[in-house]
Design goal:
2 helices; FtsL/DivIC; DivIC; Septum formation initiator family protein; mainly alpha
Length: about 110
């Protein structure tokens, strides 16, 4: 029995050292995973913010494209003399010689 007790007492220090190493590795691993989790959480928040900004910018881009298309269409139409005449008559209230303009003012909102 004395030889078995000597063998178990000599095995304990090596087990104690490996237990310390495992504990140290687990603490380091836990710290790393905690850091990685916090970093991931922050990155997800930033990605969501960027996604909202991208959506807002895409909406502005679509509005700008629509305005651009309307402006191009207006430029093409302004090359037509009939359209220019209609626009002048309507917006500037011009009339041809011999015509009578009946102007009805719009009601004012109160």
């Amino acid at each position: 029995m004395s030889s078995a007790s000597k063998a178990s007492s000599s095995a304990k220090p090596s087990n104690k050292g490996s237990y310390r190493r495992r504990r140290l590795v687990m603490i380091v691993l836990g710290c790393f995973l905690s850091w990685a989790g916090v970093t991931l959480w922050n990155q997800i928040g930033k990605i969501n913010d960027r996604g909202e900004k991208v959506a807002a910018l895409e909406e502005k881009l679509n509005e700008a494209k629509l305005i651009n298309e309307n402006t191009k269409r207006e430029v093409v139409r302004l090359n037509d003399p009939e359209y220019v005449e209609q626009k002048i008559r309507k917006e500037l209230h011009y009339i041809k010689q011999g015509e009578i303009l009946f102007y009805v003012p719009k009601e004012q909102k109160k």
